[in-house]
């Protein structure tokens, strides 16, 4: 058996090279090659991918804007939700198509209401940081059943009730997640 | 150099085994192991994954239902859009939160309107078959800028204007795409 081990190793390596799973690099022996890395790269790349590398521009509305203004920018920008900011530009809430629909149905006065009355606010707004992994963002979206997340960094503005305030720097969406899935296949 | 090739091969293989990239199988030598296949499996699995394996239950509304009914099932079922069917149960259209928002804003009479007046209809409805790959579905969603797709099969109902009609068997969403992304990482 020992006498057979060398050719066995050899031919298995030859097979690996043939399958593109190992690259032949004569001077240093065999190292994991392009197909191995292309394969596990998909996963590794995914694990290493940061929110900042794929985030979209935030679409922002002031909390004093009207529900009508919000609906208009939602359609103009073709997004599913808007990020609401206060007078200092800090994160104040998120308003989704769902929130808007809830408030507008059978309520003709809704269009002049301020956004702040219809939005999901403050502590209930799930957000991510630019340095978070895309996978963590995906997990948050699934767990909290939201279609998008504001990407935020701590703000220099004064804390309110001892709570850090956040500057909005981007937006993560399930559309971005779907695009990443496509890119994974295209990369192969 | 030739004299060194054997230990080099050996230690590289040992390294591969250690990294989990190659499994040691004494009797047949070394074969690509779990990590290699888990790695390229992610991509391969993704390419081979069919809509039927991951689709969600369709959430359906009749075209004669009112806009108010549609909004209610949208909230009850917690979905982004509803699939609209005709009297034979065949695909007639899709109505999204966006369509509903467009029709309800500042229009107090909207809630009693039939869904058929607010939906995206017929030939404009992008759909997929259960046998299509998930990647094709993702591509359609990105290309047509929609958040979900009805999954359909040809219906036995009579064609209308020479056009095949479709039975609705499922629903694909960007939420499912986001979940697949998470599963790819969990599988590794």
From TrEMBL, chains A, B:
Taxonomic lineage of the native organism: Bacteria, Bacillati, Bacillota, Bacilli, Bacillales
**Top-rank taxon, per record:** Bacteria
Q: What is this protein called?
A: CBS domain-containing protein
Q: Which residues form the CBS domain?
A: 54-111, 119-188
Query: By its UniProt entry, which InterPro entries does this protein fall under?
Result: CBS_dom (IPR000644), CBS_dom_sf (IPR046342), CBS_domain-containing (IPR051462)
Q: Which UniProt keywords apply?
A: CBS domain, Repeat
């Amino acid at each position: 058996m020992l006498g057979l081990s060398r050719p066995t190793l050899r031919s298995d390596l030859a097979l690996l090279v043939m399958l593109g799973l190992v690259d032949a690099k004569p001077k240093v022996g065999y190292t994991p090659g392009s197909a191995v890395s292309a394969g596990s790269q998909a996963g590794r790349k995914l694990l290493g991918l940061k929110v900042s590398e794929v985030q979209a521009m935030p679409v922002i509305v002031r909390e004093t804007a009207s529900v009508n203004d919000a609906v208009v920018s939602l359609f103009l920008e073709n997004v599913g939700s808007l990020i609401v900011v206060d007078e200092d530009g800090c994160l104040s809430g998120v308003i989704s198509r769902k929130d808007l629909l809830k408030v507008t149905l059978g309520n003709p006065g809704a269009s002049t209401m301020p956004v702040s009355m219809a939005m999901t606010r403050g502590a209930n707004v799930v957000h991510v940081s630019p340095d978070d992994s895309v996978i963590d963002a995906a997990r948050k979206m699934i767990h909290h059943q939201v279609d998008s997340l504001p990407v935020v960094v701590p703000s220099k503005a004064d804390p309110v009730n001892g709570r850090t305030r956040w500057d909005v720097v981007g937006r993560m969406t399930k559309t971005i997640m779907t695009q990443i899935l496509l890119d994974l296949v295209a990369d192969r």
